[in-house]
């Protein structure tokens, strides 16, 4: 193989005669390098001119006087077809690899979506269970509240039933006590009128004064006689 002066600006490796391609602007590169470059950017790596894969000169051939047989074999149509077939196979392998990567990515994304869907379904199931428990608790609380209200009404009715006779009894008892209290002073007054008056004893000073008055009265009567 002939080694040509210069390097590929993409991979910085020297050129060999069996792997050289050119663009319409005249710059040369390795075939694999320029194909990979044009998948990312549709410009020439050297002059930035617009180009695509249809404008690539796939192979450039150079004669080597020392290796005339090899160059003639390389320049023969059969060798060219074989080389083109190898390049096509390589390109197909690369595309197959890219497709496999895409399939793997899709599988991973599908698996991730499936996992997320399962997680969401589990979360929804848990939320539904919690909602069912809360509804059951609410119904139980409502039932207890209704029972408490019913018992309260029953107790109120019982209180109303027992309260009226108790009030009547208390009222009758109060009336009886008030009538007794009002009748006692009258009885005491009547008993005072019926019983004889008790003679009260005067004090000693009053008695002495009374005796002195009696003596004076008797003296005055004697003088008159």
Automatic annotation (TrEMBL):
GO terms for biological process: protein ubiquitination; replication fork processing. One of its GO terms (molecular function) is ubiquitin protein ligase activity. PROSITE patterns: ZF_RING_2 (PS50089). Residues 8-48 form the RING-type domain. Gene3D superfamilies: Zinc/RING finger domain, C3HC4 (zinc finger). Residues 173-225 are annotated as: Disordered. Residues 82-158 form a coiled coil. GO terms for cellular component: nucleus; site of DNA damage. The keyword Zinc-finger applies. Residues 181-196 have a biased composition (Basic and acidic residues). Keywords: Coiled coil, Metal-binding, Zinc, Zinc-finger. Transmembrane segments: none annotated. This is RING-type domain-containing protein.
């Amino acid at each position: 193989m002939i080694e040509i002066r210069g390097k590929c600006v993409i991979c910085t490796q020297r050129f060999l005669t069996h792997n050289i391609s050119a663009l319409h602007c005249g710059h040369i590169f390795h075939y694999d390098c320029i194909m990979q470059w044009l998948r990312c950017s549709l410009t020439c790596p050297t002059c930035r001119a617009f180009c695509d894969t249809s404008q690539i000169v796939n192979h450039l051939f150079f004669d080597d006087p020392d290796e005339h047989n090899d160059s003639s074999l390389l320049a023969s149509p059969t060798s060219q077809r074989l080389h083109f077939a190898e390049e096509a196979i390589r390109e197909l392998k690369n595309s197959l690899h890219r497709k496999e990567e895409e399939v793997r990515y899709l599988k991973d994304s599908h698996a991730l979506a499936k996992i997320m869907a399962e997680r969401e379904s589990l979360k929804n199931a848990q939320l539904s269970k919690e909602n069912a428990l809360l509804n059951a608790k609410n119904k139980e609380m409502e039932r207890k509240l209704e029972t408490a209200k019913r018992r309260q009404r029953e107790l109120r009715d019982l209180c109303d039933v027992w309260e009226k006779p108790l009030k009547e009894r208390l009222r009758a008892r109060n009336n009886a006590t008030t009538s007794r209290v009002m009748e006692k002073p009258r009885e005491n007054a009547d008993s005072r009128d019926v019983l004889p008056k008790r003679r009260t004893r005067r004090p000693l000073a009053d008695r002495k004064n009374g005796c002195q008055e009696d003596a004076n009265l008797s003296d005055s009567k004697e003088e008159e006689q």
